[in-house]
Amino acid sequence: MAAPLRVLIHNVMAKNKNPLNQRHKAMALAGIFQATALVQQLARTGELSRTDLDCLMGSIFVMDPQDVSEVYGGVKPLSHGIDILLEILDKNQTQRYGESIRYAVGLLNIERQLRRKSDLLALLRSRLEQLDQQRVHFDSISHSSVIARLAQLYVDTMGTLRFRIQVKGDPRHLTQEETANKVRAVFLAGVRSAILWRQLGGSRTDFFLRKRALVVSLRELKQEAMMA
Length: 228
What we know:
11 helices; 228 residues
């Protein structure tokens, strides 16, 4: 992360109840759940929203943001993740989104292992910087070639860790190379959001001790996204 964001994180973590910090953590958490929801959708149907995918793929390449909103291109692109988190935290729809929750826990486990591997973090950044220069030759950030390279990067980094996420779904979709690449690329984006969430002071206690504040922030973000 660039110095400006490190300063921001330091300041907002001085008081964990700071509304700005809660807003930023809510955005990062929405990024995680937008990723897991897309994987669940891909595994079941083989399809997903191009808009939601573009948001997540773009977030991978924002490595030195000045602000958390810059990672996702604003609040509106995170609408799907915000809605799902509100369904889970505010309406207790845990059974409906059971797979998404399991994937989110898995992404947080991967992030925890990854931050102890400085060599993998260095490789991840180096490869992303190379791909960032190459992707200008494609007409979309979600181009199949970009997705394939991000998927391979996930295999070469997160795939070497002891913990693996097992994806459940329709084998007819999961066995297709294009779908498998999208799943891995989306998981990579999910890890990127998990890293941001941890940097902002996110922890499992947020779901218990600060759940009300998190829900308030998510409602505010949803309202902002609807007005955008």
